[in-house]
Design a protein that fits this description.
globular; 4-stranded antiparallel β-sheet; alpha+beta; 6-stranded antiparallel β-sheet; 4 helices; 164 residues
Length: 164
């Protein structure tokens, strides 16, 4: 999830307000203010291009509809933060597969390493989420995986994130 750093004042109650450029165009939605000692005037906004499909979904359907792969995965950095050592150079290690999910139906397994999704490298969780969001619900995408020294591609049809 990429954010825009801003020094515009974000006071209590301002979250959700517009972040505008010098031309008065909305470029983001204020969302986070850093409020710790020694730090003043640093905030973050969600880029408008990221928020726009969410807003559109709320208007059209009354809720946010997001595509879903159905894996719990770790990139090398995330694993290290939690005390795990992954022996992978690239990709995402599949730690868990949600039963009945698109990944499960496509035959992904725990221990697989996702190298590419829809032709794009996936070396971080941010990249994985970004590619999935860009594809949309119902998209049928190729997933390049490594399993026990072999690489192959499986087709996965993304579905809507379940409510639970």
């Amino acid at each position: 999830f990429r954010l825009i750093q801003t020094d515009a004042a974000i006071n209590p109650g301002n979250s959700g307000g517009a972040l505008a450029n010098a031309d008065g165009e909305v470029v983001g939605i204020n969302s986070i203010k850093i409020a710790v000692g020694g730090v003043e005037g640093i905030g973050f906004a969600i880029p408008f291009n990221t928020a726009k499909p969410i807003i559109q979904s709320l208007i059209e359907k009354g809720r946010v509809i997001r595509p879903y792969l159905g894996v719990v995965a770790f990139d090398k950095n995330t694993a290290q933060r939690y005390g795990y050592q992954l022996n992978i150079e690239k990709g995402l290690f599949v730690f868990r597969i949600v039963p009945g999910s698109p990944a499960d139906r496509a035959g992904l397994r725990v221990g697989d390493v996702i190298l590419k999704l829809a032709g794009k490298d996936t070396d971080s969780l941010v990249e994985l989420r970004s590619v999935i969001e860009a594809q949309g619900v119902g998209a049928n995408i190729p997933v390049l995986i490594a399993r026990v020294g072999e690489q192959f591609t499986v087709q996965v049809q993304l579905s809507e994130i379940p409510n639970e």
